Amino acid sequence: MLFFGPVSSLFDFATFGVMLWVFHAGPTLFRTGWFVESLATQTLVIFAIRPRRIPFFRSQPSLALLLAALAVVTAGAILPFTPVATTLGFRPLPGLFFAVLALMVLCYLGLIEAGKHWFYGLADTHGERRARDRAGRIQRRSARFSTAHAVRRVRQKAQRPGLRRAERPADPSQAAPVRRG
Asked: Least enclosed by CB within 10 Å: which of 48, 98, 144, 151?
């Protein structure tokens, strides 16, 4: 999308600035910090993009997704401290980096939530909001099994003025004609 890519690039540039001007990183430390930051932000962003709910923490991911994402982020954070790090061209990161990383991840997820709020706000203004009542729910659930005529009939029945739900006829063919005008 047009919003999320530039936000990701903005945080890459922020990481570059932190690594160069705060930690005075050489190529090895720079590469390590950028790897850990990119892995953390791009893995954790799935929790913000996956649900439509705003804020994202109102929607619970599956246990498998949660454990897999946390394992990837943890492995990426631990990797520079293992013997494999020298083979990959990494070196251990200073402890302050992880505090800065946590702050950057929170800011990144906050901006993603703002973008998601903006995106879904635009999407809702272009179309009619779905009714959250029983008829709307039934229509949404049965739409792929219904014909357009039957769906239209359910909508008309739900929108009849003056009839409470209990007074509506169960069978549309038994309903009295609606007089207009």
From this structure: 144
Indicate whether 33 and 122 sit together in one domain.
yes
Residue among 2, 69, 75 nearest 42 (CA)? 69
Query: What is the value of pTM for the model shown?
Result: 0.61
Which domain, by its residues, includes 139? Answer: 130-160
Q: What is the pLDDT along the chain (181 residues), one digit of tens a residue?
A: 577 788 888 888 998 999 999 999 999 999 999 999 999 998 988 888 876 666 666 678 888 988 999 999 999 999 999 999 999 999 999 999 999 999 999 998 888 888 887 877 766 554 444 445 666 777 777 776 766 656 566 677 767 665 555 555 566 566 555 555 5
Asked if 86 and 152 sit in the same domain, the reply is no
Is residue 173 assigned to a domain? no
- CA of 47: how far to CAs of 6, 26, 66, in Å? 19, 33, 9
Q: Are residues 72 and 33 part of one domain?
A: yes
